[in-house]
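ugh ok so i messed up the first submission bc i forgot one of the chains. this is the corrected input, ALL of the components this time, i swear. 689 residues overall. if the numbers dont match what u have on ur side tell me asap before i send this to the collaborators (the ones from the other lab, u know who)
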Amino acid sequence: MSMGKFLFRRTLQGVFVIWGVVTALFGMRAVSPGDPATLMLGQGATRNLIERVREEEGLNEPIYVQYFDYVTDLLQGDLGYSWRSEREVEAMVIERIPATIELAVAATVIAILIAIPLGVISATRRDQPADYGATLFSLLGISTPNFWLGLMLVLVLGVWYGIPYPSLGISSDLSVRFGIGFIDLPTGRRGAGFVEGLMAIVRDGSFDELLTWLRHVTLPAITLGTYFTALITRLTRSGMIDEIGKAYVTATEAKGLPGVLIRYKHVLRNTMIPIVTVLGLQMGTLMGGAVITETVFNWPGLGLRLIDALSIRDWPLMQGIILFVALMFVVINIVVDALYTYLDPRVSVE
Amino acid sequence: MISNRVKSNLRQTFRNSLLPKVGVLLLATIVLMAVFAPVLATHDPTRTGYFHENGGPYPPPGFDYTTTVAQGGEIGEVRITATSEHLLGTNTVGQDVYSRFLYGARVSLLVGLFGVSLALVIGVPFGLVAGYYGGRVDDGLMRLADVMLAFPSLVLALALIGVFGQQPIRIPDPIVMGSEYLDLGIASGMPESIPIPGSVTVVVALVTWVWFARVSRGEALSLRNEEYVKAAKSMGEHNGAILLKHVLPNSVTPIIVLATIQIAVIILIEASLAYLGFSGTTLSWGYEIERGQDVLRTRPWVSMLPGIGIVLSVISVNLLGDWFRDALDPNIEGSERGA
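and heres the new structure output, hopefully the right one now
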């Protein structure tokens, strides 16, 4: 089967999954308590007004008509209006995407940079102090809730050691809330993102904006990335241990290739397959973690918006955000499947 | 159910490595703490107002702080020190931190246990039937699983909270009730029932059942071709009886491993939901961490201790899961976690 055909089939499956997600989200909204019109208008609305809104929004139609309308709107790229802010949900989702992606990518980069060397060291020095240290670290990493980790990082680094950098994300709201006193951006304004930072370098050769972004993103990214660091360390270690015992390693050793080259070029490459698989499958965890991390650090991404939407039961907004997250998950897993063929030539796209 | 080979593997792994021993010891301690919370606690965990006479909460040892107070028209500084009355201090509303820590263990473990049981009850029969019969039921299950896995656990949990609300369930405390007959030395005023987050328990089960369905499906799929299943079939046994007598007992091992891992996942989801304020109860480690967040700089102990509780519980359950997996080595998935 050709790559094109493979991608086509996986995309078709993906479309099916997304349709399922859309249906599930519609169902959840339909069975959730509370009248949408009342939620939209607030408790003080008159009965007449509520009735008019119900009529306008098609809430008096039978459920299958509402479902049909919902799916038709989605197909036209219309996610509806937020019940509370009356803004278009598309805009409210799109404006929050960059911050979440920046955070997720930064966390993944940190995780890979730390975890792979750590896993390799751990596997090649089995049952030595470095291995015990790495094992303990990964055990703690997979068992620590990241909201608590974030707070403790703020406490230890920001409060006890007084490291003078904005440990609390982009906006200053939360700095005030913690009473720590890092105030460097006007409330509510989003600081420069990664792309703006890069553009500033190109435009006037200034690294300031990128560095500011880096200072803001570091702690949230560590908070979000620790679980993945721990997970990838474990996988790298166990994968390497399996591979090191294989005949080709002995053969390359006999040929006299240096150990470092064998470990990183040959063994690690074969260990990457399960790691990439898990990374793809764990994208969901990353997004779930982002919800919490964004809340802790007041990071203006999709997760924070989801929590806001849930606390006022703004279903269209919730649906829009969750749909986007599911879409990302599906796309990333198709990419991961395609990556296999690159990582392991033995795997065909069957 | 569990074969002798499996049991001897478990014993051997336990003897040969340190981590399972640590896990069992840790988990046993936490379980005892949770069960005997009313006996070990020094105060009613829900009672507020244990403040220093100058107004602030009591710190635990090592966290003394100074506060400004007005004394007879003058403003002076008062040093507030730890008290033996409240071993680990009090929180921002003046509740005893140590007593809340003990009761928090109850909530975490009960949600973990009830949640995983409910997930088992939904997932295992579904998976076994799908794997055993195959065909449409199986296709349906697998597609449903694909859809469910496209939701991050925590995000799905949040959406389901939007559906189910935040209803707590009060469950009576057998230890406190029993103390009328047995002299357990319980401090007076311990609550006769504790609120556990009911909606959260249902929600975590709905989020995790699909893993159980997938694993039991895989087991049933391979077991249905075993000689003994075919033999039972040829002897005219009903499919239902075969499922109960042959397929289920032989699928138990991987299901137990998965259940252990999922308890850790559920404890983390519960803590996250409570931290976000969506669990409907305040007696929870996650909620306590949120409460301490506002005063992280001045009263750091409020958030610290409950977090340690979560980490230790999750570590102990994970160590148990690692032990089971190393000893039994079923190649299973399902460790996606909430936070």
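quick check: Residues 165-189 of chain A have pLDDT under 50 and may be disordered. that seems consistent at least. Chain A has two domains: 17-94, 97-300.
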